[in-house]
Amino acid sequence: MLGFIKGLIKPLIPPLIFVAGFGVMLKTMFRNALWGMYLLVFLIPQPNIWYKFHDYPFGKDFMDLLIVAILIGIILQKIELQKSSNTYLIIAHLTMVYISVWISSLSFSLPLPISTSSSLVIEYKNYVEMVLMYFLAFNLIRDEKQKKVLIIIMACVLLLIAIRIFRNFDVGGSFRWDKRAGGPFETVGLGANHMGAFFAQYAFIFLALFFIDKNKKRKLLFLSTALFSLYPIFYAYSRGAYLATTCVLLLYGWLKKRILLILLIILFVSWQTILPVSVVDRINMTVDESGEMENSAGGRLDLWGLAFELFEENPLIGIGFDGYAMSMGGVETSRGKTKEHQDVHSIFMRILCEQGIVGFIIFIGILFRAFRSGWLLFRSGEQTWESGLGLGFLGCVTGVAITNLFGDRWSYFVLGSYFWIFWGLVDRYLFDLKGAKQVS
User: Fold this and answer.
1) Are 348 and 303 in contact (CB under 8 A)?
2) Residue 360, φ and ψ in degrees, nearest 5
3) CB contact set of 2 (below 8 Å; sequence gap of 6+)
4) pLDDT by residue (tens digit) across 56-101?
5) CA distance 438 to 8
6) pTM for this structure?
7) Which of 92, 146, 111 is CA-nearest to residue 360?
């Protein structure tokens, strides 16, 4: 009976959210821009929900319309826009990416990037919307209650996705390439590695908050989110996510909870006994019996070498946005490379190749300043909510840096937006703390 009722209700969820979403947009524009922000944060990493809107009128533009509604709400409600200490660096990053779009357009004889007739303009628009999350979080989320509500929404979203994967993914026995937990990102063509990276980047923010938060209900939510997230991390079988998770826990152990260091030592000594069989199989695949890297790992080194060759052609500002894929993809090229070489499998090498030294330095600056923001907030108090969020964001930046060494987990709206939202929240806290000190 329960299954029958669930079968009736489940198909109704997307159209109900869709219709309610337009009601939220109206309230966002004319009453409170926060409503749109809350809905946006709920939907971003769940394309399995909002891609179903595409069947309805204006459904393909739903997320864009929601963002526009928030911007209109900011204007109509006369919300004062403020600048953080990182505003100009982020603007410089977006400017460099747009310059890179122009370089590609001219180099590969594409339409000029001044209208949507250029596919690169559409990609750039999506990237800008992702980075825009920083400015929305920084300027809209002002008081303590709003900050906590937004973080609770994100915790609930991760927990919901993790539980759905836990219920629907059948582990089986040994590792198989065709049996990996993909999660909601498969809807937009992103695989298990991206899903594993998503949880490695964001789940342990809530573990850090669990360490410090005094509210029992929130502590239960945060701990549940962190623990359930281990399941998709394990069964995405992403070695980059495994490494990121290990490094984040090491960081937390060093800075806050020494018991994590003890647990990691135990894991290091007896991981082949403790971890699931399929996870052990996957880790053991990194090198074969002769000590050689398997194809997946070794192939990345080859691709990075190809990217460096392209970088050497224009080391200052690079070959242009998406230039690596256009240089290496499609039919046989003068370089003798085919479609399998379209993805460089490292955002660091991709940016070095496509945006040159200038873009690479700005990108490293973004990661450094984000880490610095987390550190400053962590050091702002011994046992405060702000300190927990700062520690969590330190873990987030660490996870983002490591997972992006082995692929592009940076430039996708559904994966990267939470990074910018958390950074906006962290910088909002720092901005408010600085203001409070000046007043006192």
Assistant:
1) no
2) -65, -40
3) none
4) 999 999 999 999 999 999 999 999 999 999 999 999 999 999 999 9
5) 57
6) 0.93
7) 92
How many C-beta neighbours within 10 Å does residue 146 have?
17
> Which among 97, 100, 84 is positioned nearest to 370, based on CA atoms?
84
Query: Which residues, in sequence order, are bridge partners of residue 287?
Result: 293
Q: Using alpha carbons only, give the angle 211, 216, 218 rounded to the nearest 5 degrees.
A: 75
Dihedral angle over CA of 425, 427, 433, 437, nearest 10: -160
Bridge partners, 37 (sequence order): none
Specify whether the backbone of 188 is left (phi greater than 0), alpha (psi in -120 to 50) or beta: alpha
Half-sphere exposure of 353 (CA within 13 A, CB side): 25
Q: How confident is the model at residue 276 (pLDDT cuts 50, 70, 90)?
A: confident
Tokens standing for residue 219: 């502590």
- Report the run of H or E that residue 424 belongs to, with start and end: helix 413-439
From CA 314, how far away is CA 327, in angstroms rounded? 13
Amino acid symbol at 207? L
Written as one letter, the residue type at 345 is H
Token pair in block for residue 249: 């826990």
Separation CA 316–CA 25 (nearest Å): 43
Tokens linked to 116: 């949507």
Element (H, E) at 397: helix 385-403
